């Protein structure tokens, strides 16, 4: 069995892809206030939340357990409304050598939008399960955030 892989989930949303991308690329610190399973986030290193050299510290619930990790932005593609976040440290490093969380805000041809989350991972060994809990976590966060964005319209 391979130790690395990619898993994805896509969820239709009410708010526009532009609003979603703006939230993640320019107002990431607000996510902790609207997503039920995110308990806290703080700037760990750097002066700005949205630069590649900044590091944030996150606390959230996955599979019923509280998890902590650090996160940095690997890349931002404004044209395609795509961001890649590198998660590392603390609980992540216990199970994964590589953990990239990919966010995409997709504008559909019919005017609707969807959010796609993907996880690129490499497990430390075969005893560690693929991070399927993160897909459920992302789906729940999308519902919470979409309700907030829709209310703000």
TrEMBL record:
One of its GO terms (biological process) is defense response. Residues 2-152 form the Bet v I/Major latex protein domain. InterPro entries: Bet_v_I/MLP (IPR000916), MLP-like (IPR052006), START-like_dom_sf (IPR023393). Coiled coil: none annotated. Belongs to the MLP family. PANTHER family: POLYKETIDE CYCLASE/DEHYDRASE AND LIPID TRANSPORT SUPERFAMILY PROTEIN, POLYKETIDE CYCLASE_DEHYDRASE AND LIPID TRANSPORT SUPERFAMILY PROTEIN. This is Bet v I/Major latex protein domain-containing protein. The lineage of its organism: Eukaryota, Viridiplantae, Streptophyta, Embryophyta, Tracheophyta.
């Amino acid at each position: 069995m391979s130790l690395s892989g990619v898993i994805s989930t896509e969820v239709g949303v009410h708010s526009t892809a532009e609003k979603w991308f703006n939230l993640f690329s320019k107002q990431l610190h607000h996510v902790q206030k609207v997503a039920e399973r995110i308990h806290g986030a703080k700037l760990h290193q750097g002066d700005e939340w949205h630069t590649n050299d900044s590091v944030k510290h996150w606390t959230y619930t996955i599979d019923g357990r509280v998890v902590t990790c650090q996160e940095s932005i690997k890349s931002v593609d404004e044209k395609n409304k795509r961001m890649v976040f590198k998660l590392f440290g603390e609980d992540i490093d216990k199970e994964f050598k590589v953990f990239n969380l990919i966010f995409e805000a997709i504008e559909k041809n019919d005017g609707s939008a969807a959010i796609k989350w993907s996880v690129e991972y490499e497990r430390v060994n075969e005893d560690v399960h693929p991070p399927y809990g993160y897909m459920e976590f992302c789906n729940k966060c999308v519902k919470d955030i979409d309700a907030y964005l829709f209310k703000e319209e």
